[in-house]
Amino acid sequence: MKWFFGPLLAVLLLFATPTVVRAHCPLCTAGVLGGLTLTRWLGVDDIYSGLWFGALIGSLSFWFGRSIKRKFLPFQEYLIFIFVFLLTTVPFLYEGLTNPHVPQLFGVNRLFAGMVIGGLVFLASTLLDKFLRILNKGKVFFPYQGVVITIGSIAMSVGIAYLLL
Question: What's the rounded Cα separation, in Å, for the pair 114 and 37?
């Protein structure tokens, strides 16, 4: 049992003592990945998994975009988001990674539709977090505001999709 808790404690301590705080950090990515893993593990519908997967793509792309120190283009983070999103989602359609035999949503595969909606919800939650920081003169209203807004908005979109579909 020590072999399990030793490395786990080391990783938790690593994340508990951050040196730099970023909006889309490993915590956001881990939270979204946890939601995606839970939906796949429980065997829920592809649209709900797609919502979490789209948010994961968004989180990873913004995380990667923020790691690039130099700005080469205006709106570079958003262009990286679009580029990574397209590089991830388009192969799902063209390589047959989605199941064509499941019911579709508006003529589009449910996993792909969920990924697009999840990516858009993630982008909207990012913009909402930035707007709230501007309102509060560059400070957050409460600790882990970005994480709460991101995970909360994706969880709410899953709930709304469940009620509507």
Answer: 15
Answer for the pair 64, 70: CB distance below 8 angstroms, yes or no: no
Q: How many domains does the chain divide into? A: 1
pLDDT of residue 7: 55
Residue 27 C-alpha from the chain's centroid = 11
Looking at residue 42, its pLDDT comes to 84
Domain that holds residue 158: 2-164
Highest mean pLDDT among 3-7, 37-41, 64-68: 64-68
What does the angle CA 153 – CA 36 – CA 50 come to, to the nearest 5 degrees?
Answer: 75
Q: Can you list the alpha helix ranges (DSSP code H) found in the chain?
A: 2-16, 26-42, 46-67, 76-94, 110-135, 145-164
